[in-house]
Amino acid sequence: YLTINEAIQHSSERELAAAAEKYRAEGGTIIIMEPKTGNILSMANYPTYDPNHFSDYKQRHWRNRAITDNYEPGSTFKIITAASALEEGVVNKNDVFFDSGHVKVEREFIDCWEEDGHGTELFSQVVQNSCNPGFVQVGMRMGKESFYKYIDAFGFGKKTDIELPGEAIGLIPDYDIVGDIELATISFGRGISVTPIQLITAV
C-alpha cells in the first residue's frame, strides 16, 4: 500500500526540479522516509515523465532511479563508517587525529579535500570537517573483517525489499580482493556502490 504524502511528494518534485535546473544536473533523487517506520513519504526523480504518456519520453527516464541506480555514495557513506566505528569501540568523539592534507596507504597517497589539511582534530571534528584522511584512519582501525560485518548489517549489497520492480543491490567489492587501499577508500565512500533507497534505509 502507498504511504506517499501527496503534499510532501509535490514539494519534493518541485524542489528537485528547481535544484537540477539551477545546478544543471543530469538527474537526481529525493526520498523522504519516516525513521521509525520506514514508510516512504516521498520519492521523487528527475528527469521525470508522465506514466499516462510514457511513449512521449525517452526510455531512460522511465526507470525509478531511487531504487534502480547504483552510485558511489562518497561522503554520505562516512555516516556508516562513523556509526560502525563508534559501535565497535575503536574510536570515541574525543580521540585525536592529525590531517596533513593527505594520508599514505601502502604506496598511495589519499588527499583531503582541504589542500593543507585540517591539522590536529578530534574525531568529532573529523566528522564535522568530512575529513578523508581521518576517515581512512578510522577504517584502518576497524579492519576489513569488522567493517564488512557492519556494511552487511546496514543492508548494503542486498535488496531492501521495498516491493517495487527493478531494485538493484549495489556493488560491494569482493571480500577476498579487498586490501588496505580498498578498505581506505571504502571508508569515505569510494570504491563501493549503493542505491538511494539502501542509503536512506541504512541511515
Provide a descriptive summary of the structure in words:
By secondary structure, this protein is α+β, with helices and mostly antiparallel strands. The chain contains 8 helices and 6 strands, in the order αββααββββααααα. The strands form 3 sheets. The chain has a two-stranded antiparallel sheet. Strands 3-6 form a two-stranded antiparallel sheet. A hairpin with a 6-residue loop joins β1 and β2. It starts with 5 loop residues before the first helix and ends with a helix. The relative contact order is 0.16. The mean pLDDT is 95.
Q: What's the short story on this structure?
A:
It is built from eight helices and six strands. It has 203 residues and is an alpha+beta fold.
Question: What is the topological layout?
Answer:
Layout: H1 6-22, E1 28-33, E2 40-46, H2 65-68, H3 78-88, E3 96-99, E4 102-105, E5 108-111, E6 119-122, H4 123-129, H5 132-142, H6 144-153, H7 180-187, H8 196-202
Antiparallel strand pairs: 1-2, 3-6, 4-5
**Sheet/helix structural class:** alpha+beta
Number of strands: 6
Spans with pLDDT under 50 lasting ≥5 residues? none
Strand/helix succession: HEEHHEEEEHHHHH
Strand content of the residues, in percent?
A: 5-15%
Distance between the termini: 23 Å
Number of H- or I-type helical stretches: 8
What does the radius of gyration come to?
A: 19 Å
Instruction: Report on the biggest sheet.
Output: 2 strands, antiparallel
Helix content: 25-40%
Average pLDDT metric: 95
The general outline is: elongated
Across the major sheet, the strand order is 1-2
